[in-house]
Amino acid sequence: MAKKETIKEEGKELQHNNVSYSVLVKPIITEKSYALFQARKYSFEVSQAANKQEIAKAVELLYNVKVSQVRVMKVKPRTVFVRGKKGTTSGYKKAIVSLKEGYSISI
Question: Is-above-0.85 flag for pTM?
Answer without folding.
Answer: no
